[in-house]
Amino acid sequence: MFATRAAPAVRASRMPLAVVAATAVAGASLYTQPSVHLDQAVNTAGADAVSRPTTIAGTFTTPSERSFIMIKPDGVNRQIVGKIISRFEERGYKLVAIKSVLPSTELAREHYSDLASKPFFGSLIKYLTSGTPVIAMVWEGKDVIRQGRNMVGATNPLQALPGSIRGDYAVSVGRNIIHASDGFESATKEIGLWFGEKEIASYTPAAWDQVMADN
Ligand code: DAT
Ligand code: MG
């Protein structure tokens, strides 16, 4: 299913951005399947280690799995950063990295490189680099990549369910508040792009056992 070796993004902290970006993208090609998306993200207990690659996004399908979550400029402008962070905390996820960033055009373009051919790409980059910061975060925990997408809701907020972040706070696809990695490969690329390994903490929250126990 997947190669077990760590993707090169693990070494991102020691590379210039362009190299990080190129390496992160190249990392995706290490995998033999094109993407790790929602339905593939769980229930691999008992599968061999080949299905559990380890990268800067943790070990896939274990509690160490990590997702890159970013509150976009409209979320910061609307002053709902705290509310959004609270949702992840209250759900039972662990904040392992966070910073306010004014992204460069280069960083924004690399983050959304898979959308470079889309007609809205230019305005998307302009919006991300408008001068209002983004809040870049790494959240860790059980099934966090898939659950993060569910918590964020559909790309078009008009299709996002009430109770999701976009379903509760947004009505326009161009101002949909928040980004969440859509698979293990993209989490690996995005965490490696926005953070160095040394910026990601390892700690145990006080109530972690209560949150994590399956009995
Ligand atoms: P998501 O953010 O849900 O992962 P995506 O990766 O397809 O969605 O697109 C990235 C962002 O690009 C999205 O959050 C908002 C913008 N976008 C997507 N489709 C768009 C469209 N049709 N018109 C304008 N902006 C769009
Ligand atoms: Mg996306």
TrEMBL record:
Its cofactor is Mg(2+). It comes from the Eukaryota. It is an enzyme of class 2 (transferase). It holds the Pfam family NDK. Residues 64-202 form the Nucleoside diphosphate kinase-like domain. The active site is at residue 179. PANTHER family: NUCLEOSIDE DIPHOSPHATE KINASE. This is Nucleoside diphosphate kinase. It comes from Malassezia brasiliensis.
